[in-house]
Amino acid sequence: MAVDIPDRLPPATSVGVLGWVRRNLLCPWYNALLSAATAFLIAKAAAPFWNWAVTNATITLDPAVAKRHTGAAWGFIREMWPVFMTGIYPAEERWRPLLALCAVLAVAGLTCVRRLRGAGWLRALWLTTPVLVFACIRGGGITGLPEVGTHYWGGLMLTLLLSVVAMVAAFPVSVLLALGRTSDMPVARPFCVAYIELVRGVPLITILFMASVVLPLFLPSDLDLDKVLRAMAGITMFFSAYLAENIRGGLQGLSRGQYEAADALGMGYWTKMRVVILPQALRIVIPPMVNNFIGILKDTSLVGIVGLVDLLQVAFATTSNPKWFGRLAEAYTFIAFWYWVLCYGLSGCSRYLERRIPSAGK
Amino acid sequence: MHASENAPSAAATTGSTASSDTSVPSAPSAAGDRDVIIDIRGLNKWYGQFHVLKDITLQVRRREKVVVCGPSGSGKSTLIRTINRLEEHQEGTITVDGTQLTDDIRHIERIRREVGMVFQQFNLFPHMTILENVVAGPVHVRGMPRGQAEELARAYLSRVGIGEQAAKFPGQLSGGQQQRVAIARALAMQPKVMLFDEPTSALDPEMIKEVLDVMRELAEQGMTMICVTHEMGFAREVADTMIFMDKGQIVEYAPAQEFFTAPREERCRAFLDQILNH
Questions:
Q1: B140/A359 CB distance under 8 A
Q2: Handedness of CA B143, B145, B150, B153 (dihedral sign)
Q3: Could you tell me the pTM of the whole model?
Q4: Can you give the pLDDT at residue B50?
Q5: In order of start, what are the domains of chain A with their CATH numbers?
Q6: CA-CA distance, B165 to B66, in Å (whole number)?
Q7: Which residues pair with A37 in a beta bridge?
Q8: Over the stretch A104-149, which tens digit does the pLDDT of each residue have?
Q9: pLDDT at position B110 over 90
Q10: A56, A118 in Cβ contact below 8 A?
Q11: How far is A259 from chain B (nearest CA, A)?
Q12: Strand intervals (E) in chain B
C-alpha cells in the first residue's frame, strides 16, 4: 500500500524576500544586469531630490537661517501648517474642524468593527454626521458657537469638504440618471440623456463660472446663495454625469437573465433594482467609480478660479507672504503629498471593498 | 386590494368565453370551466418582421402537466415566456388564473407572482447566498416577515435536497444544485403554475437526473407545469399533454400516450424519431 508522503516546506531560496529577489530581479543573468542598471538610474534621479528634501533641508522657523541652506525650508510648512489645513479659519476656533474630523474618523472606525455593521444606531449616526459636521464648522444659530461663514473656510478642510460632499451627493443623483437612461420611460429617458450629454460636454471650469457668476444673475438679488454651496452644486452636477455613465456600464454589464429572474418573481421596478440589479452593478463599477472619485478630489482644485481658497490656492497665498516669499517648491511638494495620500487612500478603499463584497465570480 | 375585487368576476367571464369556444381545433377538450388556469387565444408574436408565434390557442387545466417540444427556433421558449410577459405579444389574449395579461403593470406583476419560472441558465442572484435567493421573493414581493420566509425557504431547499448548502453562494454550487435552488426559489413564491424553460439543457449529463427527479416529484404533488424540454423519457413519464411546435405553430397537440405511440403529423414523427434514436 502507498505510504503518504509528509508535507515539506518549499526550498528556502524560492520563498520569502530572498526567493522574490532571486526570481524577479536576478534570474536569468540579463535580468540582474537590467536590475543593476535601473537601480543606478533611480538612485541618480532620486539623489538630488533627497539632498534637497532631507540632507540640505532645515526645519527652522527663521527664514533668514533657512536662506543659508540650499535645501528645503520645512520651517515654512511648520509655520503655515494651520493655514494649509484650514485657510483663514479663525485661529481660536480651529479646534472645531479638528473635532469634526475626529468625529467622522470615529464613526468610520466604528463601521469597521464587524460586529457593529448594519446596526440601526450606526446608520442613524452616519445620517446625522454630515449635519453635525456642518453645524460644528459653521457654528452660529442654535449651536451657540460663534459663526464662521464659509468665506473663512479654506485649505485642506475646504478641499475635503468639497470633494466629500460632491461624492456623497453625486452618487445618488448618478444612480438615478443611469437608471433613467437605461429605462424606457418616455420622458425620463430623454431628459437623462440630455442632462448627461450636456453636462459632460462642458468643462468643469465653465460650470463653476456659471454657478458663481451667471447663476446669481437669474436669482433675485436678495437671495445670496453661498459661494461654497454653489461650487459644491457645480461639482456635484458635473460629476454626477460622469458617474452616471460608469454606473450605466455596470447596469448593462449584467446578464439579461438577472433582470428576467427578478421579473419572473414578480418584483416591481424599484424592488428589482434595489435588491437584484444595483448591488451587482455597483460592485462591478467600483474601480471606475473610485477612479471618478479620485478625479473629483483633484479637480476641486479648480474652485480657486471662482475665488475659493482650497489647498492649492493656499500654496499660492502662503508663498506670496513676504516672510517666506517664493518657497513654491516646498508648498507644491507638501500639497502634492496630501493629494497623493488622499487619492491613494481612496484606491485602498476600493481594493478593500472589491475584496469584501461577494461578486458574481465567487 | 385589486386581486380581491377583480379576480372572481374575471374568472367567471373567462370561464364562459372558454366554454363557448371549445371548437378551436388545436386545443380540444379541457376548457369549459374554472378548471382552466392558463387560457391562450389567437396569440401572435413578431420579432420585428419575423413571425415567431402564429395563431397559438391553448388551454392548460389545473394540475395538468404539459410538455412542449420541437426543433430549436420553433418558438417554444418564446411561447412560455409570453405567459409571464418576459416577451410581449402583439395579438391575442392570455389569461392566467382569471387575470388577463395586458400592458397594465399591476396585472403583469399579479400574474408573475402566481407563475414560477425556471430558466435554462438558472439565473440565480450571484451576490446573495442560497438562502437569500429563495427568501428574496417572499420577502420583497409577498411582504412576508423575514423569519417566516426563511423557515419557508429552508423547507423548500431541503425538499430539493440543498438544505445543507443554504449559507453558500451560487458560484460554489454545481449546475445541477444551482438549478434545484432555482426551482426552490420559484416554489417559495407558492405559485399556481410552474414554467420550465429547458431546465436541463445547460447541465452536464450526470446532473440532469437530479433536476428531473425534483421536477418529477413536483409533478406527483399536483403542480401545474409547462415544460419546454428535450427529455423525452421525462415527458413520457410525467406529461398529460404533449405539444409539438414547429415554425411558430402548434403542429401536434395530443395526450402523451397518443403522442408517443401514434403521432398524427409527419413532422412530429420525424422529430421524435430523431431525438429518440440519436
A1: no
A2: negative
A3: 0.82
A4: 94
A5: 152-356 (1.10.3720.10)
A6: 31
A7: none
A8: 999 888 888 777 777 788 888 888 888 888 888 888 777 778 888 8
A9: yes
A10: no
A11: 9
A12: 36-47, 50-61, 65-69, 91-96, 99-100, 115-118, 193-197, 224-228, 241-246, 249-255
